[in-house]
Hints:
Number of domains: 2
Structural class: alpha/beta
Helix content: 40-55%
Shape: globular
Number of helices: 12
CATH architecture of the largest domain: 3-Layer(aba) Sandwich
CATH topology of the largest domain: D-Maltodextrin-Binding Protein, domain 2
Radius of gyration: 24 Å
CATH class of the largest domain: Alpha Beta
Largest sheet: 8 strands, mixed
Number of strands: 10
Distance between the termini: 63 Å
Amino acid sequence: MKSCRIYLAGSLLIASVLMLPLVANAQSPKRIAMATTASASSHYAYSVAASQAINANAEGVEANVIETGGARDNLRRMARNQADVGIVTTNVAFDVYNGVGDFEGKPYKGLMLWIYGATIQNVVVRKDSGIESLEQLAGRKFNPGIAGSGTEAAADSVFATLGIEGDWVRGSTGDIVDQIKDNRVLGYVKSGAGRQLDSSTVSIAALTPIRVLSLTDEQADTVREKLKNLSVVTVADNEAGKDIPGYTTWAYATGFMARPELDEETAYQMTKAVVEDNQLQAGAFAGLLGSDIPKLTMELSATPLHPGAVRYYEEIGIEIPDRLRPAM
C-alpha cells in the first residue's frame, strides 16, 4: 500500500513538472518582430523607442526590432512570415496593396497600424530665378529629387501628371546643393524635416533668398485624383521656416504596417501603446515632436487600417474615413 502511495505521489510530481512549460507558455507575451531599416537611420531610432513603448504598455506583447533594408524588404519579410509588422512609406504601401507600379499583379494586403511621420516634398527655387509657379519650371535646369530617392520618384510622377517637363538635372545631395548655390541649377525638390525645411535647404537659404513653390488648387485636385499613392498637404505661413509663406504640396508618409493575419487584440494593444506614449518616440525622432499620430494616420494613410487599429482609434473618438476601413 505504501509503495502505491509513493508511486501515485511520484506520478503526480512528474505530471506537474511536465505541465510547467504549458503554464509558462500560457503566460508568455506574444513576441512580435518589427522590421525597420538600417541602424544608422533616424527611423531605426524611432522604431527602438516605439518598441520600448510597446513593451512597457502593451499588455501581452513583446516587440523586438529587426534591422532591414527598408520598406520593400519589410514587405517581403511580412509576406514570408518573417516579420509581423514593418516600416513602410505610404506610396509603396499603396502600390503593393493594390498590385500596381513595381508590384504589378503581385498585391500584398498588409494593413496599417499608425503613421508617425509626414515626408513633405518642398519645391525650392532661388528667388532670383524669377520662378513663381510649377509651370515655369518647364525647360529650366532643375533637380526633381536626389537620384534614386523616393522624393525623385514622387516628383517625376507629379511633374509627368501635370505635364511639366523641365531640363532635369540628376545627382547627389551635395552635388545639387553646390550647383544651386553656384546658380547652375535653379532649385530642387527636397523632403522636409517634419513640416520644416531640411538642413540642406536652410544652407542654401543662408547664401541666397529662396522661394517654395505651391500647387494651385487645380493641380492639387489633379494630384489627388490621379496619384492615389500620394497625399496633398498645406503648410501654413512661417511653418516651414521664418518668412516662408504658406503653400500646398504633395507628400507621402511613414508608418507601421501589419501582416493581415496579425490578431486584432495584438494590433489594438500595439497601436494604443504607441499613440499614448509618443513622448519617448519624439525624443528619438525629432519630426514627431508635437505631432498628432491619429490625425497623421487619418490624413496620410493610403491603405486600409488593421481592425485592431480601427478599434483603438474609434475608442478614443477618431472618425475613420471609409477609404481606411478594412474590407470585410
